[in-house]
Amino acid sequence: MKELSLNILDVAKNSVKAEASLIEIEIEETTETLLIRIRDNGYGMEQDFLERVLDPFSTTRTTRKVGLGLPLLKLAAEQTGGTLTISSVPKRLSPDGCGTTVEALFYKNHMDFTPLGDIVSTVTLLIQGNPDIDFRFVHTMPDRTAELDTRELRAVLGDDVPLSDYEVLAWITDSLREQYGPDRI
Amino acid sequence: MKSLEELAAIRERMKNKVALREASGEIRIVVGMATCGIAAGARPVLNALVEAVSKEKLDNVTVTQTGCIGMCRLEPIVEVFVPDQERVTYVKMTPEKVPEVIEQHIKGGKPVVKYTIGAVEA
After folding, report:
1. ipTM of model
2. Mean pLDDT (whole number) for B43-67
3. In chain A, which residues have their Cβ closer than 8 Å to the Cβ of B65?
4. Which of A7, A20, B53, B55 has the maximal Cβ count within 10 Å?
């Protein structure tokens, strides 16, 4: 993947498949590190599956739905000296508290650091493709923050307008671009 | 700053459009957005399609995302479904090819044969 935002687009789809109703994407950036956290309230994973999920070669037919997305993100993090961790609570153990959190830490000054890229497109297209799921996006940078919560948008739009409406998507893109400022996009 | 009032205005405008949308035949554009598609460049293609449909106000067209279509080496893949017509599969799509597909196929009804799987694979 040429951009970390493409990995985010890819890995967030695991949360969609896990039937999450809320997917949170947090990016915490310092001058030296970039942390990506993707948290969902989907049905989670059992311990034995969790142990195998990062190895692309142990993926069998029954586990195929997870595929290469997570191993690619892990590779991107580790090649900068960073790490990828996953924690998960399966629905069987906690029907109300289930879900999965993926955290990837990157060292930005490493020569193999992949740039974040067009994160605004990633957020917009995740909403476009999954208008019935709520997304909370927060990107904190040393000097600014960009954020969006579809629950706030939904409260204004009601049942009349889906979040995938083209005018709404344009509003989302413009809102995020404004928050990043012209020098970041 | 973008304000939530602007969203409320969109909601007001949409109330009148819903009936119109339901009356016309729906065209579906489906973009493969699995790991293979994304890695091959599907995101800018999807972006260009969403922007084109929005800009041209093609109210009878919906753009949706799907998983792996099964021909990873031909990604990005875009499928177009027009009611009562055979599905058209575009392969190795780029944002640059999108205006032609919108103009000729979606608006004009004639598939852009040179970008379809039949032409590229032949």
Report:
1. 0.89
2. 93
3. 125, 128-129
4. A7
